[in-house]
Amino acid sequence: MTRPEQQADRRDRATSRLIAGAFAISALGAVGFAVGYVTGGQTQLAGATLAVAFAGLAVGLAIWARKLLPTGGYVEEHEPFASPPAQRRLAAADLTGSGSPIRRRGLLGALALALGALGVAALFPLRSLLPVGSRRPDRALRDSPWAAGVRLVTAEGRPVRPDDVTDDSVLPVFPEGHPRSGDGPAFAVRLDPARYAVRPPAGDLAGLVVHSLLCTHAGCPVALYLKGTGRMLCPCHQSAFDLLAGARPVAGPAARALPGLPVEVGPDGFLRATGDFTAPPGAGFWSRQ
Ligand code: FES
User: Fold this and answer.
1) Residue 72 pLDDT more than 80?
2) Transmembrane residues, as ranges (predicted)?
3) Domain span at residue 52?
């Protein structure tokens, strides 16, 4: 082999290694995406790993096309004719034989690995559409972590006794074990039972009622209590809910009452739920059902 041929040979081998490395990085990105999805689905991490997967694939294919595939214009200056069989055999051996510096099989294998890993990783998000596990995706918007026997706890995780809810004041409460759940926040309030014009949707315990904290308009926390009026106010778009009239909206864009939570006093003296909210908590999608 002449010196220029040796240099070209070395160049092709280095390029092949570079392409295989890019495909390997793509495969790692796809595996990272799948692992990230299974272990919690952090959105930024999913985006970054997918970007790595596609970038590795793009870089590998671009280098392959630019460095290893024939380029340039071709001019046919004579009538087409077939090469002699011996010459064709030689050309084929040149391209595919063991002496060729271009490991096409290896590169195709690496490309198949990258595409295969990406294809498998793309199947993982389908989990969000399938009824697998206890909290079915098709019910995830309807159910909350509240269920019979789940105790009410404060933001600090302390179980709540009926006496913790004082007259005409609001106490934010959460389902025990699910302090950060998006649809679990609720509030407990105690009003004079004689003032209820409409029976609370989930009943009351000597005037004590519990409702979802999420506004039924767009899901903001209904965080303001207008003391003495029995009304809760949402600061986002000023919806007001009358707790003395079944927590129905009396002002603002909300069209649906705040769902109630049925509660009782457990044998340990703490408040606990006897079921889920009386209606799906949160935004007004449900009002169009
Ligand atoms: S989110 Fe409460 S009024 Fe709009």
Assistant:
1) no
2) 18-39, 45-65, 107-126
3) 3-67
Q: What is the CATH number of the domain that holds 260?
A: 2.102.10.10
Q: Would you place residue 74 in the very low, low, confident or very high pLDDT band (cuts 50, 70, 90)?
A: confident
Q: Are residues 57 and 155 in the same domain?
A: no
Write the DSSP symbol of residue 60: H
In a domain, 36, yes or no: yes
**Percent share of the chain, pLDDT over 70:** 89
Structure confidence by residue, pLDDT tens digits, 235-284: 999 999 999 999 999 999 999 999 999 999 999 999 999 999 999 898 86
Pocket of ligand 1 (CB under 6 A): 215, 217-218, 220, 234, 236-237, 239, 252-254
Is residue 289 over pLDDT 50?
Answer: no
How many Cβ atoms from other residues are within 10 Å of residue 205's Cβ? 18
CA 235 to centroid of ligand 1, rounded, Å: 7
pLDDT, tens digit, 9 for 90 and up, residues 159-169: 999 999 998 88
The residue among 42, 67, 92 that closes a domain is 67
**CB contact at 8 A, 246 and 198:** yes
Specify if 113 maps to a domain.
no
237, 241, 250, 287, best to mutate for ligand 1 pocket (most atoms within 8 Å of CB):
237
Q: 253 alpha carbon to ligand 1 midpoint, in Å? A: 7
Beta bridge partners of 212: 186
Question: What does the alpha-carbon distance between residue 41 and residue 13 come to, in Å, rounded to a whole number?
Answer: 39
Show the tokens assigned to 59. Answer: 């870089």
Look at ligand 1, atom 4, and give the residue with the nearest C-alpha: 237
Residue-wise burial string across 152-187, b where 16 or more C-beta atoms lie within 10 A, e elsewhere: bbeeeeebbebebbeeeebbebbbbebeeeebbbbb
Q: How many domains does the chain have?
A: 2
Is 134 part of any domain?
A: no
pLDDT of res. 285: 60
